[in-house]
Design goal:
Layout: H1 2-23, H2 30-50, H3 56-78, H4 85-104
Helix pairs in contact: 1-2, 1-3, 3-4
């Protein structure tokens, strides 16, 4: 179960890093740039620990899929970046795919 906790942490760090990347204004602002780099490195280290027990395809699908959805939600709320219906449907399909893998696949560890 620890690998799932580490994966959630990896996703959280990646999400914070991507948010800071937006705020860094192309790496022209020092503090957000430092947060971005620190969070991305931390996220990758945590993901590498997860890969000891979870297949790479499954771990990466969950890491990237949930990261996409979380970043879209942050973009919507923090940066007023609206999504149209096809984008929302696509993200719902990403979440549905993750649920299907977790509930029905035997490869999820």
């Amino acid at each position: 179960m620890m690998h799932w906790f580490l994966l959630i942490l990896a996703i959280a760090f990646e999400t914070v890093g991507t948010t800071a990347l937006k705020v860094s204004d192309g790496f022209t602002r020092l503090a957000p740039s430092a947060i971005t780099l620190t969070c991305f490195v931390t996220s990758l280290v945590l993901l590498s620990l997860v890969l000891r027990t979870v297949p790479v395809g499954v771990a990466y699908a969950i890491w990237s899929g949930l990261g996409i959805v979380l970043i879209a939600a942050i973009g919507w709320t923090a940066f007023d970046q609206r999504l149209d219906a096809p984008a929302i449907i696509g993200m719902a399909l990403i979440v549905a795919g993750i649920v299907v893998m977790q509930v029905f696949s035997r490869t999820t560890g």
